[in-house]
Amino acid sequence: MIVLCLAPSMHAQQDAQYTQYMYNTVSVNPGYAGSRGHLSIAALYRNQWLGLDGAPETQTLNVHTPLGYRGVGLGISVVNDKIGPTSETYFDVDFSYTIQTSFDGKLSFGLKASAHMLDIRYSELDEFEIDPQLQAQQDIRNKFSPNIGAGVYYHTDRFYAGASVPRLLETTHFDEASVSTATERINWYMITGYVWDINPFLKFKPTVLGKMVQGAPLQVDLSANFMLNEKFIGGIAYRWDAAFSGLVGFRLSDEIFLGLAYDREITDLGAATFNDGSFEVIFRYDFIKNLGNLKSPRFF
């Protein structure tokens, strides 16, 4: 308790966390916008640390598409992230420009423009367990702040890699006279993956996601997924020193994909007395113009 009282600042999770990041790349890298080659809509819901009061809860909706044949892609995303009495909503517009680097290789440069809305409901805090100074604070409603981001994304039919910074501006949400301050830090993302054909019926795809932010340890997510008969996906994932995950996915048709993930913490927070794990579901619909030209579904 003495150490906590003397600490000048504390660092915690800021950007929303995803286990199925391989199906939600546009949320962290604007260069991905339009890379699927057709209009794509995806909705994701994540409930982190089930049963723990005030645990993170995230809803994401994104739409992105190529525009014509000039290498331009456009996307729109809405991300709502709730942690305790705090709610943050991002309205993002993504723009990408793609150049052909080889027969099957494409390199995309992306820009992201964001509108950030912040709500803090001090009135919801337990009046018997919080600092009286916080009790006296007025609720913050829809505080607006802009931001920008950038990313680069390279892919072929088998391989992809990207680097991005979704939020470049380190916005401070409270002035120095406030009881507390919160400053957004720059989060760096790196993502890569490769698809192998084990046999005509089975594909294997390992992926890696790295996340770096000042004041927090390097976060690395490793996953291994298998696709059977172009329909069923199953795999496991490991978040370094944090959690193990199980993933399943179903291609209900050429256009419809449904994915589920469950995380189990391996930290002290993962004890059954604290929470029942984390659950995530994603639904994606691809508006494929000509199914006759679709040789095999995209695995990323």
Blueprint of the fold:
Elements: H1 2-6, E1 39-47, E2 57-67, E3 72-83, E4 86-100, E5 106-120, H2 132-135, E6 140-155, E7 159-165, E8 187-194, E9 196-199, E10 202-213, E11 219-228, E12 232-239, E13 243-251, E14 256-265, E15 278-287
Antiparallel strand pairs: 1-2, 1-15, 2-3, 3-4, 4-5, 5-6, 6-7, 7-8, 8-10, 9-10, 10-11, 11-12, 12-13, 13-14, 14-15
**Low-confidence segments, ≥5 residues, pLDDT <50?**
1-13
Number of strands: 15
**Range of strand content:** over 45%
End-to-end separation in angstroms reads: 46 Å
Strand order of the largest sheet: 1-2-3-4-5-6-7-8-10-11-12-13-14-15
The helix fraction, in percent, is: under 10%
How large, in whole angstroms, is the Cα Rg? 20 Å
Q: Can you summarize the main beta sheet?
A: 14 strands, antiparallel, barrel
Overall pLDDT level:
85
Order of helices and strands: HEEEEEHEEEEEEEEEE
Oligomer: single chain
Structural class: mainly beta
Number of helices: 2
Specify the overall morphology.
globular
Description of the molecule:
The protein has a 14-stranded antiparallel barrel. The relative contact order is 0.16. It has about 300 residues and is mainly beta. It has helices at about 1-5, 130-135; strands spanning about 40-45, 55-65, 70-85, 85-100, 105-120, 140-155, 160-165, 185-195, 195-200, 200-215, 220-230, 230-240, 245-250, 255-265, 280-285.
